[in-house]
Queue: 2 jobs
Job 1
Amino acid sequence: MVSKRRLSKSEEDKESLTEDASKARKPPLSKKTKKSHVHNEVEENDSVFVELLKTSGIILKTGESQNQLAVDQVVFQKKLFQTLRKHPSYPQIIEEFVSGLESYVEDQDCFRNCLLPCERLQDEEASMGTPYSKSLIKLLLGIDILQPAVIKTLFEKLPEFLFENRNSDGISVPRLIISQLKWLDRIVDSKDLTTKIMQLVSVAPLPLQHDFITSLPEILGDSQHADVGKELSDLLMENTPLTVPILDVLSSLQLDQKLLSKVRQLVMGKLSAVKLEDLPVIIRFILHAITATDAVQVISELRKQLDLQHCILPSRLQASQSRLKSKGRISSSGNQESSDQDCVILLFDVIKSAVRYEKTIAEAWIKAIENIASVSDHKIFDVVMLLIIYSTNTQTKKYIERVLRNKIRSGCIQEQLLQSTFCTHSLVLKDVCPSILSLAQSLLHSVDQSINSFGSLLYKHAFKYFDAYCQQEVVGALVTHICSGNDAEVDIALDVLLDLVALNLAAMRLNAVFVKGILDYLDNLSPQQIRKLFYILSTLAFSKEQAASNHIQDDMHLVIRKQLSSTVLRYKLIGIIGAVTMAGIMAADSGSSIVTQRKANLNNEEYTQVTSLLQLVHSCSEQSPQASALYYDEFANLIQGGKVAPKALEWAEQTILNNFQDAFVVDFCVTPEGDYPFPVKALYGLEEYNSQDGIAINLLPLLFSQDFAKDGSRMTSHGSGQKLVSPLCLASYFRLLRLCVEKQNDGNLEEIDGLLDCPIFLTDLEPGEKLESMSVKEHSFMCSLMFLTLNWFREVVNAFCQQTSPEMKGKVLTRLKHIIELQGILEKYLAVTPDYVPPLANFDLETLDATPHTSTTISAKMRVMGKKGGRKRKADGSKTSSPDTLSKEDTSECDPTPSDRTQLEKEFTKKEEEKTSVSLQNYSAFFRELDIEVFSILHCGLVTKFILDTEMHTEATEVVQLGPPELLFLLEDLSQKLENMLTPTAKRAPFFKSKGSWNIGFSHLHQRSAQEIAHCIVQLLTPMCNHLENIHNYFQCLASENHGVVDGPGTKVQEHQIMSSCYQRLLQIFYGLFAWSGFFQPENHNLLNSALEVLASRLKQGEHDQPLEELLSQSFHYLQNFHHNIPSFQCALYLIRLLMVISEKSTAPSQKKEKIASLAKQFLCRVWPSGEKGKNNTFNDQLHDLLCIYLAHTDSVLKAIEEIAGVGVPELINSPKDASSSTFPTLTRHTFVIFFRVMMAELEKTVKGLQAGTATDQQQVHEEKLLYWNMAVRDFSILLNLIKVFDSHPVLHVCLKYGRLFVEAFLKQCMPLLDFSFRKHREDVLSLLETFQLNTRLLHHLCGHSKIHQDMRLTKHVPLLKKTLELLVYRVEAMLILNNCQEAFWLGNLKNRDLQGEEIMSQNSQESTADASEDDTPSQVSKSKVKEDEDDEVSDEGKEQNSDESDDDSD
């Protein structure tokens, strides 16, 4: 198609040249002059040729004048034909006529005139004929009786001109001659004409060969296409320079597919030697010659060669061209580069056309890309093609999206490849910009982080490499995402906008009006999203080129002032976030830019703007404690990010320090006076104060003045006129103060270190006996007091955790102990104050409606317990269970039966007596967030009481060290942070959770990226390994003292429990880190190596720069060593998961698979502490997971199942009621259903994955598969027979579900094997079928049992199972017929029986089928409407018998 367009243009040029030449020879004259001129140049000749032409209407001219046509062309041809046909000397007259023509064209001018168009006489201009006049030769060729002779004359004449240059008028005679043969109405002897042309092609010079070949489709008839195609293909093998014209012609001919395939293979071999400008024609032919059967193979080969040879090159040329342009030196080489780029665009146009109109090519191209396995094999060309096909073929969009998602997940298409694609082919991709944005939009809807990231990259690169219109479309699409209301989309779109602002601020400023429109949708945005939006807008408004951005500044000031002055708290909070963010940009700009003397006044003006804006925020928020606290937190975050200029920071510190002292700090010696409900005491001081000096935090009086105010004006002033500040702001204000001092003094906090050890004005907090006698209001007051104190301590720990002096470290650890102590007291108060709502600690918008849904649930539950004393209250431990606990099918399978009610009542009564606390986990939203820097405390050593008892004399002189409770406190918080940041969104937040509830209490954390958090945790790996080893040693010593029992009689229960929880949290943190999906991204590979080096160095010190495989192997070995004295089943599961994550990162995970299976089996065979198993659903889920891991990693699933079912279960059956299996202690009567379900599911999964094989397989393969199926059926038989002992509903449900699936797998995978194994292994096949018959009969009994008990949960599986059993009967019959054994098959009636084999009798069956026998020969349905099944029996010499059931009955 491309070639045609180009060639047709050359023809037009040629014809125009001809016309120009004729016009040049014959200038326009008046009519009179023209007539005399013509008369003087008329050919005077008495030959037959001239006379007949004159008679028919053509006047021949001499010289450079054109021949004149006096009549219409058709009339001329008709007259001449009739004259010749009716001539007396016909047919000799034709020879005379042709000889006259030959004589006439001996003269070159005359010959040329005959080849050029005739001139129409004026009186013929009104003719209805065609306006274009043919040449004399063309007219003669249109007469059948003359055509062969004229053609012969032309081809005899043509060699004279082959090697001559063009005439002075630019006319090429050979081209003119060939053009006479084009588009003839009829060819008399097409075969002869073809032969002549091909002979001519073989001798002509190269330029003429090119023209002759490309003219072939316009000359030849359809009948000659095959012959010409064959000759051209032969010529192609001999003459490479003619490749392009030959392929161009072959694409236009109707040829045999075999010939096209042959030529295509030849061309594919030569592709590497082709010039870039010839490539479009060649690719067009290759795509034209593709068939549906070989499309994928051809395109796979094409994409390899095309990318390597021709698509990397233009990028280099384009880059060099851009460099030349930038230097202002465009030369001829630049034109060449531009031409090459045009060729690439033309090439993609050819491909676009092919994939648009040929669905086969489009799908094959996608399939070829999908089949690429290696990451390195993915090329730029592949990405371009996916984008082009996505834009041109709407039917394949879903397919392309699926392929892209899979490629992105597997890391095949990475950021660098995408960037290179846009850089290289930006001109090509610009045309498909709308489709690229559509694809990006679709990818952003995904829940997968890597796919989201790829979608955001499409937006970024489209903005970077495309023109202004496309940039506007990109910004519009991102704004649409932000206004969609989908949190994940909003976050990604805002992040992309942030990147675009950094990438090209000038271009973004042109599109600022779109971004500004988001201000109308602030209601739907979270605080972090609002911060990002205002950051973007502020950057656009307050950048250096401010003149163009004044309208944005005005709009932002209007919006912020409107929000700040709102009486609705939510809008006021939005205004605070926006104002502080904007102030940060204004202050940072003045402080970070290079200040010159000339700009000094401007900077002063900006400083004034910043301070006045912050003062406005302060004045608007001071009436609301929550708004004030948010302002302090936002300002603190601004300072922490280092975004405030020193001048503004100095102003802030002076203001804040004075206000904090006035509001919260009092002299220690001044005892607060007032009518307080409790005696005020200074508690938790770390130093002894005398009566003259020292300070204290005035907490209780402030809280009392707020909560116990008699009138409504709780924040009104006292007689002094000084306003009271709410204690709600204490922690936030201190955080702001601390960060100001820290920034001003380079991290030194000596200026405020008195606040670390100063006491707090509280009252006696230990409840004792007075707890029951206190009123509800007093309870609430005490709870609020403790919440505020805890949050003060948490901020103090945040502030001073990085101080280096031993004294400060000791005080921080003491504050940690105080937090643990206070939490214990608080739990006691909360247990008797169920409806209490604590004071807010996190003031982001998400917490506005965050009254603790968990605590109200608790209170509701407790009220229900009061009404229904017989119901069991769930232990608090279930609320703090592992977040990865999965809900499995039939979660109630292990719940106690109603017969256990008495035992439950006893347990409930006991728990009511012991009800002293609730889980503070439910109140996490009301505690201040710990900074990630706090975990540097983990570097302190761990000293347990156990070690202290033996080493007291050496430890007594050291600084206070981290104890187990404090360690557990830190690890729990770190674990929650890790789960929140490094766990994929799709896995962590159920859809029914309220918006933002997952992120409450993590606002500071979310201002860091996941990479930063992962980096921080890698830095903590060394101390965490130390703690892990210390705890492991603790349990090792404990086990050796108690003779191998980890919870022996000498164990301190509380200490053991805390240490076990620490162990679990450490493994959980390790697992969360190494399971992070970010490690698959190339930029994080070094971080992964660093983490693995820490683990590997625990085994071998001093080795650096080891390969990844070696690090993985050593890390695996290091972690594997901890399996010996692991304290709990949950720890064991986390250790296994951690090892699995490490092994998955290896290129050869199969080597570690066996070790994981061995370890999992050890844990299944270990006796765990008594509290670990039984009726706990969490334990059941964990056992399910571990068992699945064991069976998934073991070498032989069938042997493992046989061992458990054939050894462990009989041991359990023979043991006392509450005992367990001796081989598998985790297998008890309560956990049997877990084992049973997993074994049935894994058995079905294993046999389903076994291929049936074919009759052509080797004999050994058949025998191995037959043996395998024998083992599988034996395992199935063992498992099914267990229902005679364990007949609970969950077990029967598993049997019905997986029993049917197993029979289906037997039908699909095993029966084809039996078809061609029956003759050679007759005995084995019959034995297998006999065993399987017993199993299917038991399944039939199970169906009867389900019906007789009318259990709807079971009966819904019966119809499908019965249908499958019936299919099995007919399939066995078909197998016997195939092997000529149909006489061995017979059917009989099968009675309905229960699980114990007893016949199920109904009213009708008792009357009519009492004497029925199972051995009845005829296959008849009894008159009773009872369920009956057919049997098929296979007999071998009267000895072997096999029957399978199916159902043919109804109720």
Note: The CA atoms of residues 705 and 714 lie 7 Å apart.
Job 2
Amino acid sequence: MAMKDEDNNSAVAATNNQTGMKKGGDVGDNGACIDRQPDTVVHRAGLNPTAGRGSRSGPGAHAATGIRVLKRNMKRNGSRSCVTRKTRFGSRERDWLKGDTQRGCVCLYGGTVELQPPASGPQASSTPQTDLQLVLCSSNTTVEELCAQRDGKGLYVQLHGDLVRRLDPSERPLLMVYEYLTAMGYADPVRVQQEAANSDLSCLIRFYSERPVNADQQERTLLKGVFSVRKGKTQLHKWAERQVILCGTCLIVASVKDSLTGKMHILPLVGGKVEEVKRRQHCLMFSSAGSQAQTYFVNFDTLADYQRWHRQASKVVSQTVSLVDLSCYSLEAVPEYLFYSQDITHLNLRHNFMSLQGPGGLLNLPRFSQLKSLNLSHNRLGVFPECVCEILSLTELNLSCNSLHTVPAQIGNLQSLQTLSLDGNHLSSLPEELGGLCQLNSLGLSFNNFSHIPAVLERLSAVDKLAMAGNRVESLELSTLAAMSHLKNIDLRLNGLRWVKSENLEAVNQVTQLDLRDNCLDSLDLSTVCNLETLCCQRNQLGTLTLSGFTLRMLNASSNGLTTVNIYPVPNLLTHMDLSQNLLEYLPDWVCDCRKIEMLDVTHNLLSELPSRLLNSLSLRKLLAGNNRLQRVPDLLDHVPLEALDLQHNKLTELPESLFYKALNLKYLNMSANALESIPPSSQSEESLSTLQELYLTGNNLNENCGAVLVGHQNLRVLHIAYNQLLSFPASKLSKLELMEELNLSGNKLKTIPSTVSSCKKLHTLIAHSNNITVFPEILNLPEIKLVDLSCNELTEIQLPDSLPATLQELDLTGNSSLMLEHKTLNLFSHITTLKLDQKSTTTGDSQTVSTPWNHGYSEMSGQRNKLCVSVLAVDQFGDGVEACYGIFDGDRNEEVPRLLQCTMGDVLCEELQHSSVDTVYMCNTFLTSHRKLGMAGQKLGASALLCYIHHEPSDPGGLFSLTVANVGTCQAVLCRDGRPVPLSKVYSLENCTEEMDRVKLSKAIITEDNKVSGVTCCSRLLGCSYLSPWVLPKPYVRTEPLCAQDEFLILGNRALFERVSYQEAVCTVQAVRDPRAAAKKLCSLAQSYGCKDNIGAVVVSLHIGEDNCTCEPPVSTTEPRGPHPTPLPVSVTLGPSDPATLSSSSGIVSEFNSETSASEVGSEAGSTASDEHPSSGTAPRPERRCSLHPATTLCGIMVPGSAGTGTHPGLFQRQPSCATFSSNQSDNGLDSDDEAPLEGVISNGSKLEVEVDIHCCAFQLRSGAPESPKDQDLEKRGSDFSSGKMRRQNSVVVSATNGCLLAVCGREIADLKKSPSTSSLFGKKLSNGSVVAPEDSHNLIEVALEAPKKKSGYFTAPAQQDPEDQLIVPPCLEQEVREQLRGQSPIVSSLTGLSTTSSLKDPVWDHPHPPAFPPNLVPAPGPTPVLQQEVYDTAF
């Protein structure tokens, strides 16, 4: 970067070979002096730079407004549109900013910046962009003052990449940013000031100096131009050039060229035709509808115009009503030409910023004489627009979410009004005049401030539904409803309702549907509501419930404390009843008398028996009675229509003998988590009529004899028989289950899977982990096989067919310690999307092992979803000391955000630990920063997140450990202490968190009937989904728990896991298994067998926290801050056989570093190549003596999760879609001539060598150690010696640190790496994640992570070409000098490879810039020391 500053007042940011000249002014203590800078001319590398010079102009140039403008014309590529923070300001500006936290910077973007990213990166590089202005001001600076300084007409703000609003002159932009950040969760004013100047923030809040131009929006609202026009189909009219306008529903043709003063010809197009005229090029024929149809021919100049007009006109003519949809266009007024369309009947102006005044303002809407429907919701009106009361033709009016406080009396003028929506406002009363609208039949008053039902409703006789959800009605007198005899449907959910009573026992005859969900009722007597058909009263505090059963058809009363339900008379019309999650010990007798009951849900109660009459009901089709205390199931006396039966989590030891041949319609049976020792036969004869399709028998005591019984269910598609006592599965029986699609045999004692499994031609999922299987089953010939999980077995070899099915997507072979795979086998697996293998240690000999008092395992299952939207972060060795970091991220329906968080959140935590040691501060800031770093992906998408950090307390570094947990959304953490579960997280869902529900209601969010904010998410706190701010926030719940010897393990899981597996069952499950990986696998398998269909993720961290005294030698210094900044490393580091990260000493070996993250991992991979050198013969520093609690810290950390220590499973080798491919010149099979065995972590395929390595969490893996030896320094000096000006690059190694993410590859592979879409981002900044502004340098890694979905457009696009200025090129003659200067700034790590690389890191604070960080050296291998060429890449920008 080159900078020029004539008056030493500020730094002008420019790219390489850019210069900028300015005239400066002094900045006073109050920031009163102004400085205006001219545009900086941008040139590509290799051209002669020129500079533009400007001067102050205008009468307000010296006004004391507290504003300072730094104007940059920046060259941009894709979404990379900002400089980094460290190059924004000069020292003078930084000093001025530090003087007061109310000072700051506002970034102003020009008006031609595209609102959405370009389709591809390379094209974007040539797209001209306007300049960016950085304005120094204070929080008191108004828009008016900013505009006076700039000679501008106004400023605009854009939130979350959505609508663009013009700011009022009195609004304060910087204060808006500060308030936005404070609402997000930032508490420190200094941190707020720093975040406000961060370029990534433009994805959340962005200011424009003029309204941005959106070509697509203009096309859809208005098309006009001067074209050749001819009227009529005959030749009597001649062609003439006229101005033509397409707006609304009409084609407008001027009678005079280039003038609108003459007569305008209006052609209504709704119901008409638009056709191509083939005898003329680029010509369209427009015709109106009806017998008096008119026709115009328009000849366009270009194909683009022709297509644009044809596309828009075709939409209009296809409409059946005269509808104009101008929603979400950021409009302040409708186009004036729209008023020519007098046939408009429906006008949608939702989500705009409509004003009253102006030619197209709301005051002119009465000009639409035929308007029937008007939607003005979400327009920030503030007051009810009385002008709409003059549109007497209106039948539908929507004014929702406009912050209205009153409704004017003029509303009574709209006598034709039938629908009035006033939801999401601040109304507390209605005018009496509203009662005169005799045709009004729908009135929306939800989410307002009403404390009672408005009396005016008594006069609105046509209104049949009372929609008052989310108000403040705390009491309901049924006599009030009796007076409103026309109301049939009452919606009073989310009102804080405390009691419902009837004082005079007057019957309420008209009410048929009543919704009282999510209130505070402790008892409910609705016996006087005698015609009630549907009652919803879930999530109250009901102990008793009394209803009238005359007309009752549906009852939903789950999640209460009901001990009894009284309904009289017997509800003979009742079809569906949900009484789950209550305290029922028995079912009332009337339940068995219901003649039409079809679905009964009584799960999670205290039932000890089921009435025989219930199970023999001739109407019951679905019975859910799981999680009770049932000990037996009554016999079936006759054929019953039962189709689904769920009796999981009871105490059943047997099933009725006649179950399957009496319930011939039974298709779903779940008997998991019982004590079954056998299952009944499918029929009384050899011929079976069973229609059973899904059978879940997990967690029983079944043995192999059950296989003979299962054969009778030949329609079986899904069979879960995991965690039983099966020693084998009869081969002859399995072959008869030809329709089997999903088979789970996990957790048994199987030694083999019968070869007859090949008869199951439709099998797509085989899960058989945690058995004793030694032979790989013959399943790879199945045509539809997708997922095979044979982890935690005893496999030794795999015999494969010549080719694998193209459908195979996931193969898990981890936990098979004796499995050896040949290169031929690995090559055959090369097309599998997710391949999980153990990495074998290849280094032996004397070494210093790293042990930690914990180890982990994880599991992820996609279930019946097509994609995996859960990601896991697991780092057993984190930071400088003995620390760990674990996380789980659940994107619900999106996979992008969880992958981004998986790749970056550890780095962010590591950075935040540098700034604060207070748990609530660094954890909260980690979440908020990660939220910001999501960029454009986080505008519309979001994810639940849970992060756990194990560490020593800063006040007691030698003491015991503490566990800090932070979470948003529905991911949860549970600690097992003395065999009991200790929940550590808070579930941020609207249904489970009352205070969050109150907060969301107070901010006037619309909560739909499924309890989702705006119908999007049930969570009130998420990372991402910023467009739902301020309803959905990223601020986490933080809790720190001291760990002790009684803490056995930690469980992390997403919503789907803990919805099916209770805390206590999860703890008991892990206690019984002990091995963390097998335990995590079991948790997920149990959740699936209990009925979960969604993505499931689980992490189990086994803790070995002792209270023994520490025996470590005292450290030399304890003043170093925690974090990713590397320090000199030991000369030689060799990992023990139990550690998954092993640095090979073989010649040319590429060591595999993997961070065992998740099956949804997205291929952020790079290779690490050890040099051919042999270890130094010099004296190595003596390793410190460490105890088991405080082992020595070494360079093992790149191998993130397969934790070290005894009993730890090896790290996983995961094959992911987007791998880094290195072309190899060493050999064709991935081996060197000296190698006698296949290399671990290497897949060879012809002339290409694929190295599978994960880099996403390397920043916090750098370990401190002993200082470098004199021999190291000598070798480093030799590495810089270039004889005769020649640079030897063949054996050189390039290490690039991108925000701490390690990339180490052979020097000769750099060219290929730059060409690879998966790795090119690591050598420069030119990758696009679709963000509207340039993310910080840490986003380089995010870009690589997003290559896996292989999306060609949208948020994630291909990386752009690299710009010359992205590289810091050091000439050979200056390299030694640069090396010495850099060594003076920061301790440069150098080892026997002579390797060191500079990389700029982000400057988190203006006045404390960090020195350049250098990644650790690779461990040298034996051999002579070659002369190395050092290549330096600047990847921070």
Note: The first strand starts at residue 68 and ends at 72.
